[in-house]
Each structure stands twice: as C-alpha cells, then as structure tokens.
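From the methods appendix. Each design record in this collection lists the tokenized structure first, followed by the designed amino acid sequence. Records were kept in a plain field format so they could be parsed without special tools. The example shown here is representative of the layout used throughout.

RECORD:
FOLD TOKENS (214 positions):
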C-alpha cells in the first residue's frame, strides 16, 4: 500500500515558487490540514491554464499530492516590454523665450495619451540654457505624477565622445530613506535642446519604470 508523503505548506510553496514566471505563492490549509487554496502570482508570458497545469504536475512529482485544479487561483501582472514602454515618458516639444539676458524654457512630454509640461526661467547663457531645459524637463516629469519623489538637477553638460556631441545629465532623486543619484545621456544629433531633454529622460525614465512595476 502506498504511503502518502508528509509535507507542509512551506514545502509546497517552495516547489511552486521555482516554476517559470512565478512571482509569489501562498498555500492555504483548512482545519484538517488539507490544502484548501493555492494562490499564485505570475508574469504574463504564460496563460493561467498553463500555470495551473505546471503547479499540478510539480506538486504531484515532488510531493505525491494530487491537487484539484479548482483550488488553484492564478493572478497575473503585465511585466512585458510593452508595459515597461507605456511607463516611459517621451519627448513632445521644447521651446525657449528670451527677454534681455533672461530666458524661459518650456518642455512638453507625453506618455500613453498623457500630456505634461514644465517651465524654468533664468539667465540665457549657453550653459544656463541647458540647465533650464533640464530643470523644465524635471518639472514636466513631476507634473506627470510618476516621479513619486523630488527631482533636483545636479549637473548638465555637453561632452564629445567618439567625435560625437553628447548631452549628459545628473539628477538627484530624493525619496524614501536615502537620496539616489541618476545619470542619463543622449547623442545630440541636430538640436542640443532636444538632446538635453532626452538625456534627462534617460536618467529618470528607468527609475519611473521600476516604480511602476512595483
């Protein structure tokens, strides 16, 4: 006569957690110690039916336990490239207006139908223009509501690498328990203004994408 192998909820959770795309798992037992529910959180690359079959097969193979598929519930999060792409803000427009030695930079950004903008004003020197454009970009990012923390421009510069002009931006992200320094760059093809906006987005967008995935 076959003897049923002993196991606990942690054993089953550990086995299921090792399956492809599984992010989290919770096994709930009833008063008699039998499995009542199995909750699985996965990515979106596989169908829920495939996940359920994998769970059934793995638990049977490793523990000798036949799970009723009706007890297995699967929740999925969209963690693919398309989701991350939707989280990214993109360049829309940039403009500068001058008044004597003063200027104002305005930057527009877009994300999945969302339009946001920011403005910054100051002196109109070449280096001042770059700083104001980067500052206006950060204000547009804050206007989008995606930042979740204060963004401060540390520095912006134009450098030459491999014979090409490149805009480099360093941003301070203040939030949570500690500051986080972000850096981004973009090749300046024709428009230095657009290059600065794209470098600022390069610094911040990856952090915004991570925040969206959490």
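DESIGN:
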């Amino acid at each position: 006569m076959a003897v049923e192998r002993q196991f606990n909820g942690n054993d089953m959770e550990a086995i299921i957690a090792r399956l492809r795309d599984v992010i989290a798992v919770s096994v709930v037992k009833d008063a008699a110690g039998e499995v009542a529910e199995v909750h699985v959180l996965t990515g979106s690359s596989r169908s829920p039916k495939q996940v359920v079959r994998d769970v059934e097969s793995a638990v049977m193979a490793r523990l000798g336990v036949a799970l009723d598929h009706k007890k297995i519930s699967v929740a999925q999060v969209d963690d693919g490239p398309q989701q991350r792409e939707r989280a990214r803000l993109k360049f829309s427009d940039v403009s500068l207006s001058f008044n004597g030695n003063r200027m104002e930079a305005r930057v527009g950004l877009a994300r999945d139908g969302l339009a946001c903008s920011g403005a910054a004003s100051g002196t109109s020197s070449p280096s001042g223009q770059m700083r104001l454009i980067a500052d206006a970009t950060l204000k547009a990012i804050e206007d989008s509501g995606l930042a979740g923390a204060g963004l401060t421009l540390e520095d912006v510069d134009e450098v030459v690498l491999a014979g090409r002009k490149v805009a480099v931006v360093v941003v301070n992200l203040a939030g949570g328990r500690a500051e986080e320094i972000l850096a981004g760059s973009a090749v300046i093809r024709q428009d230095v203004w657009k290059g600065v906006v794209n470098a600022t987005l390069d610094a911040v967008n990856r952090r915004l994408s991570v925040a969206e995935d959490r």
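APPENDIX NOTE: The longest strand covers residues 150-161.
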